[in-house]
Amino acid sequence: MKPSLSKRLSRMLSKIFDQHQRIKAALATLLLIVLCACSMADVDKSITDRARERVSIDFDWLFYLGDESLAKNTDFDDRHWRKLDLPHDWSIEGEYDENNPAGIMGGYLPTGIGWYRKHLTWNEDWAGKQVRIEFDGVYMNSEVWVNGQFLGKRPYGYIGFAYDLTDFLKAGDNVISVRVDHSKAPSGRWYTGSGIYRHVWLTTTSPVFIAKDGTWIRSENVSTKHADLKVDTQVSNATETDQKVELITEVIDALGKVVATDTAALILPAGKTISAQQALEISNPKLWSTHDTNLYTVRSKISQNEVLLDSLDSRTGIRSIEFTVDRGFLLNGETLILQGASMHHDAGPVGAAVPDDILRSRLTMLKAMGVNALRNTHNPFAPEFYDMADEMGFVIMNEAFDGWWTPKAEFDYGLYFEQWWQRDLSDFIRRDRNHPSVIMWSIGNEVRGYTPDQQKLIKDFVEQLDNTRPVTQGRGYAGGHLDIAGFNGHGEYQNAIEKFHKANPNVPTIGTEITHTMHTRGVYRSKTRYRTRDNPAPWETIRDAKKIWQKIKDKVYPVADLTETEVFPEHNIKYGSSFDNSLVRMSIRDEIKKARDLPYLLGTFRWTAYDYLGESFGWPARTANFGVLDLAGFPKGVYYLYQSQWSSEPMVRLEPHWTHPGKEGVVLPIVVYTNQASVELFLDGQSLGEKQMTDDMQLVWLVPYQPGVLKAVAKDATGKVITEHTVRSAGKAASVSILADKTVINANRRDVVQLEIDIVDAKGNFVPYADNQLTFELVGPARLIGVENGDILDLDPHKVPTRKAFMGKVLVLLQATDQAGDIVFTVRGEGLQAQEITIKAMKHKQ
Fold this sequence. Notes:
Radius of gyration: 29 Å
Number of strands: 46
Number of helices: 13
Distance between the termini: 42 Å
Strand order of the largest sheet: 25-24-23-22-21-30-27-26
Helix content: 10-25%
Mean pLDDT: 94
Low-confidence stretches: 1-49
């Protein structure tokens, strides 16, 4: 095979280096000439521009759903293929069908095989450079070719990977071909998505460069006065001769000031990668925490005779972590109870292909709830998730796998685990170990049939790559080798964690998956329901739910009924109550108390933050509504219970709404959450009494229903009114209200507008039971990428301009194109006055 232009130039560069390595002045001159001849950027540009370039190649891919064996060939005719932008998930574009092979686990959405192709025109700036393509995530069994040359296969759909294109690029058209094989399902116990569902990048460097994920940064001896920073840097030499270079490492604060620097002389063997260790001291560091997210940039530069060959910026934070049985988790020496939530990677109507704007919005909702810790379940998340966690102030339990050698779904990663686990785990830890938000590694979840030796093998492997963080495992407490004992559902039984601690007094514990409660927005019940007893899951029914309940009924936490008889009997049994009385084993209030009162319990990660597709309780449900926010991202009632206990921002919230036609005179429970000292409740201006907040974490009034205005007034310990919440009885649905999370966006093909549509009466009051069918009209430079109402039983598709309201609400997602202009969005519904909103798309100034 004839060497590519890039390869020939790289060899020419190597020979010149070899011939002149003893004559430094001449070498510098010749280097400059050769680098210019190879079209490297001019020396007067920024450091990053002239040494390394990383660009997104998300746009203008071609896609075909089906198998096409010739699509790997450069000359394949793809003109009839669909053009789209990444990230892309073809499963969420399909229809729900009980016969789809993903079944109950995959939310009844389709899977299959898909092909992607990307045309890249030769860029003169690539001459003499190393060119690498980087995929942040492809689900699953991806195979990649460039110009017909096979580059590799990666079965695991959740970890990124890269391929070197240097030797295979040519003048003219270059074609990247990707085959994604998700034909065998179910491949996971939850909705996985299908396709190139994360970002793709093209990185160019000189032949002497810092390896991918090649820096490891950690801080030691941390205080507000001093911190020691250790930096390991992997430097690669792709030339055919040894190279003498300097590694200059700078630490830069948020203001752009260099606060520490170190230089090391390196000799790089030809065709090899070496690791260099450096130590730097930081005076008066600004520490990273969940409330002060101070970040530093570590800039690693490779220089040869004052010519910059590579420059890489790695972001990090300086902080100390400690895990104890007497003081809990310590962040910078201070106890921090982990107020956590578990998350799957999908986001309702966009499936697994989550735009950055939507991910940030979801995390913002959790931050407002008071969440300070997240567990990515049960796989690595996209790189931007960890960047946002660093910026927003979350600590992360970073989970690598669901199972190990034994599959948990018929076609899951367990089939490939033996061959791939070390490669994937290494890539995962190397990718994420510089993030200050990552405080522990989780190596699995409810792993089937594992042995203590297997647990030790994987834990030891993790520690070879990062010995600065502890290792845990979801429900892995029995293995005996973990630094922190993780408890899932079993930890929700009374005294289960206390019993473990008594037997293992020196092992910290954590609620890796505590607690499990089930709720539906807008749905309420006044009598407590336990899943196993009242609405068993399929796996409980198979094992005889009645017998299971008899075994566990004295172990679960008791939750008192709010009324003697059910006052909300009208709801489908598959919907859970938005009060804290719809649970599996432990209520939310008991979860919070447990984490607060047991110092050896570091905290909990409730199951889950958001409703997620898949793992439902059977057709026609597409999920099992474990979230405190629904599939549309709308909060359920218990969101505010958590907020009252986890957030310091003054709040009060009364539940339920006050629109109950047909229940006039019926005594209804009014539940109020607050973080203030007391609440006074008013109906039509008349006080129904004031109550002091207690350790029960909720205040309850029993109020005969009559239409009107209900208001909760929260006061501090001195009796001063701090905040209030008012709900009004609504009349007949008459119109809609449209609330946009932004009204100006960039015309960049990425920005997303989230439109919250409420059904309202003639006076503008929210109608909480409205179920009107809505239609949407979009005019202007945007495209509709998703509709959702949060109803777990609604099987309508997500990419169409219509949706039925559920409990009065619908979410619509619009994404910018590359054109500026007005985006006019109109909502219509039978018997409703139409409403519109205008969003402005602006061209970003260069």
